[in-house]
Amino acid sequence: MFFFAYMSSAFLGRTCVGSITCRIERRLGGKSVNILTLGVLAPYRRRGIGNHLISYYFLSLNVFDELVSLEDRGNHAIS
After folding, report:
1. Is 68 exposed, middle or buried (0-12, 13-18, 19+ CB in 10 A)?
2. DSSP E strand boundaries for 13-61
3. Euclidean distance between CA atoms 50 and 10, whole angstroms
4. Contact predicate 17/11, CB 8 Å
5. Which residues contact 28 (CB under 8 A, 6 or more apart)?
6. What does the pLDDT read at residue 64?
7. What is the pTM of this model?
8. Quick one: pLDDT at residue 46?
9. pLDDT digit of tens for each residue in the chain (79 aa)?
């Protein structure tokens, strides 16, 4: 088993409004995804930015059916 880590940010103009960090694990049966962090600034939530970040990775890495873990802690890491 080996893995690759990916990170991406969403910008509106020159402002970073969201980010995602994923780990893709390749196994004999295929791929699995761990979303390590996902955050969107409070004023920009409910606009589909987080959904777009997740969709981008699932489509670009050809992963359609596995989400290993996603944990909502409610922490405000990006301010």
Report:
1. exposed
2. 15-27, 30-40
3. 9
4. yes
5. none
6. 58
7. 0.71
8. 93
9. 556 778 889 999 999 999 999 887 777 777 777 788 889 999 999 999 999 998 887 777 766 555 555 566 666 554 4
Give the whole-angstrom CA distance, residue 38 versus residue 77. Answer: 10
Q: Identify the DSSP state of 44.
A: G
Backbone angles phi, psi at 59, to 5 degrees: -75, -45
Helix (H) or strand (E) holding 15: strand 15-27
Q: How far apart are CA 17 and CA 52, in angstroms?
A: 12
Q: Positive or negative CA dihedral for 5, 24, 11, 38?
A: negative
20, two tokens: 């995602």
The answer to whether the CB of 22 falls within 8 A of the CB of 4 is no
